[in-house]
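User: Let's play a game. I give you a shape written as tokens, and you guess the letters that built it. Ready? Here's round one.
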């Protein structure tokens, strides 16, 4: 697996930085967000370094992130009231860590526009 030496999420995946893991399979790690924006706020990231969704290649990794988030939405029962999945892309899109990740937000009414 290719890693970026200074990537925060790669360090979390390698367990060099502690996190609360909520989901894991061979392709995806899911953790609690340390600055939650909703009662349920998890991040799902591929275990291999991909800078952002703009680098997705059609290998199914985005689908794997969505399926992991959907699993946790069912587990936490936010699926019943609804939830939001968010992928930010690059600086203007709000991406703050250059490693593809998907946010699952739920447990409250979401507003629009988001920001």
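Assistant: Ready! My guess for every position:
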């Amino acid at each position: 697996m290719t890693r970026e030496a200074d990537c925060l999420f790669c360090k979390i995946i390698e367990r060099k930085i502690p996190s609360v893991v909520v989901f894991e399979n061979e392709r995806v790690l899911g953790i609690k967000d340390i600055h939650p924006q909703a009662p349920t706020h998890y991040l799902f990231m591929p275990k291999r370094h991909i800078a952002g969704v703009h680098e997705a290649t059609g290998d199914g990794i985005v689908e794997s992130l969505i399926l992991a988030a959907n699993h946790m939405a069912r587990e936490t029962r936010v699926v019943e009231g609804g939830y939001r999945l968010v992928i930010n892309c690059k600086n203007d899109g709000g991406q703050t860590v250059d490693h593809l990740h998907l946010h699952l937000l739920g447990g409250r009414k979401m507003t629009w526009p988001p920001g």
